[in-house]
Amino acid sequence: MTAEQYVVLQGLPSPQGYHDLRKLADLTPPPPEAMAEAVPKSLQNSFTCFVAYERKHMIDEQTPGPKQAAVAMGRLLGDGALFLQLVDMAVHPDHQSKGLGKRIMESLVAYADEHAPHAYVSLVADPLGQRIYPKYGFEDVKPGIGMFRCLRIQGDPEFKKAREEKQAAAMRAPGDSA
Predict the structure, then answer these.
(1) Predicted confidence band at 146 (pLDDT cuts at 50, 70, 90)?
(2) Which residues cross the membrane (predicted)?
(3) Residue 151 in domain
């Protein structure tokens, strides 16, 4: 498929579509208990969101089909003036490498530049994103570091075990074989 076979719209995915796209794109999906209230509230509180759909399933240029799933998305959150955070950049694996991430990033950056020109826009990037986001004007915050707090994740036994293993590895000297 080419870029012309997709349409990128400003709007929100359905809560279930949001969950599914995050999961398919290897992003942590929201927990089941958040689907009824927290996910819809989160989506509604977006500063903006852009969603991509396959053109062939659209009712018209602005209306996705009744059961049509989003194939890519990206959101901006924040106060709408000085501080924004880019989140939820996700492209369905079957639709990657077709320019959708680029089109959504361009839409988000243009929207922020027009509607919040004084905003400090931040994001947390996985390794792939660390190579891609500089193309859109994002810079590393070093010597700062990214941090997070999420009781649901930090309380998970698997997360705790992985964190302890990482800390133990960091404590070993480079030549240690322990």
Answers:
(1) confident
(2) none
(3) no
Distance, first Cα to last Cα, the chain: 51
Q: pTM for the complete prediction?
A: 0.84
pLDDT in tens, 56-87: 988 898 999 888 999 999 999 999 999 999 99
What pLDDT is stored for residue 30 in this prediction? 93
Give domain status of residue 61, yes or no.
yes
Q: Tell me how far apart the alpha carbons of residues 64 and 54 are, in angstroms, rounded to a whole number.
A: 9
Contact of 60 with 50, CB cutoff 8 Å: no
CATH code, domain with 57: 3.40.630.30
- Using DSSP bridges, classify how beta strands 120-122 and 83-91 pair: parallel, antiparallel or unpaired: parallel
- Contact 83/120 with Cβ under 8 angstroms? yes
Q: If we measure between CA atoms, which residue out of 139, 75, 146, 72 comes closest to residue 112?
A: 75
Total tally of structural domains belonging to the chain: 1
Burial of 136 (0-12, 13-18, 19+ CB in 10 A): middle
68 within 8 A of 53, measured Cβ to Cβ? yes
Secondary structure (3-state) at 7: strand
